[in-house]
């Protein structure tokens, strides 16, 4: 039996490539780029095995910008030529921004030793001067992304690859063809739901998605990332465990996003940008993205409990997200996507198992509290006839407190005296209301609302971050 080798491939500078400016059709080009990235690390290893005449079972893991395959030693040189050709065209299409690098090592020793050798060679290749071609113009690639991999791919039944264009994903026809799906065994796992336009012919534009929002008519981008996923993968004791974990996470994001987005409350208001090995991105009406974040976190928690309970430690068992709202209806999808990424990085640097939303980073428990408080805030308008302006007035209390109180004062005093807020909030809500059959219910709702906003301490008060998010949420819903 011949010696076997592991080959690991990785795409570098993915974010830089997605954020790169475009000349025309900004949203179409951005969508095409994200589809290309999502499919490259699925198609390339499968095409490599097919070109070498090797069994599909030698595919280890794929997706999320990287892949791992097992090859016979005799295929090393041919694999090298295949990847060099693919890497050259990938660099050309991306204007020299996106890089394909790879490492190879023998299948000898424990998996931890094999993984270390792969990582060390990958690091050497990453830092090799002159390893990549010079930068190319992005103009040729933009047409390909906009016309072939933009919205057109949303309705395609299959994707293909040919040796004549080794860095391109083709639609429908090519030397090697794979079905596009997320559930079939031999298909490429590709989440691609897109809310339909008003005429049902093509995917909805960001302006159409904004018009479908409840309250303020705007749209946004929601991004999520598994906390400490890399640590969880590095702790795998065997290659089989490594592959099992990689496939589990990938299938979760591809499958759950497709199912969730097809639900009645989401299918006309949300579109998938990509689903990766440990992350995802979607865009759509802002209110639907908030609801989608809550539901996806619930599903991920259930997924972790069911599949990761035998793994020690919290790594890879929680997820963090960030929601960025478009500054205007005609804002660039790529720009809002980039802002969501920045907010996500900031949230994960400060905490884990959290969400950045409407100006604050909240733990998921706090986010659930904010949702309940938001319902209480909107109930004051719907059930008791309080003016919607009260939401803006309450937001003003938070802003005043932050501007008047320094952090040093807050630490020294523990907060402001509560009766000031009780008096102001009652005045804002209309405490003089004394008539009507709902007077008792109104007073109970008012008291509960004050307690939720400023806490129940009789001595000091600290305005809660969840309350600030709930106020913004309710205000946007009432716009």
Characterise this structure.
The chain has 479 residues and is of the alpha+beta class. The protein folds into three domains: 4-178, Alpha-Beta Plaits (2-Layer Sandwich), CATH 3.30.70; 206-357, Reverse transcriptase/Diguanylate cyclase domain (Alpha-Beta Plaits, 2-Layer Sandwich), CATH 3.30.70; 368-478. The protein is 49% helix and 16% strand. It has 16 helices and 14 strands. The protein has helices spanning 14-19, 26-51, 76-93, 111-126, 139-147, 206-211, 229-234, 239-261, 286-307, 333-350, 364-382, 389-404, 407-413, 418-429, 439-454, 465-478; strands at residues 4-12, 59-63, 66-72, 99-106, 158-161, 170-171, 176-181, 188-189, 219-226, 270-275, 279-285, 319-325, 354-357, 360-363. It has a six-stranded mixed β-sheet with strand order 10-11-9-12-13-14, with helices on both faces. A four-stranded antiparallel β-sheet has the order 2-3-1-4, sandwiched between helices. Strand 2 (59-63) and strand 3 (66-72) form a beta hairpin. Helix 2 (26-51) packs across helix 5 and helix 11 (364-382) packs antiparallel against helix 15 (439-454). The longest helix has 26 residues, at 26-51. It is globular. The N and C termini lie far apart (70 Å). The model is unreliable at 131-135 and 403-416 (pLDDT under 50).
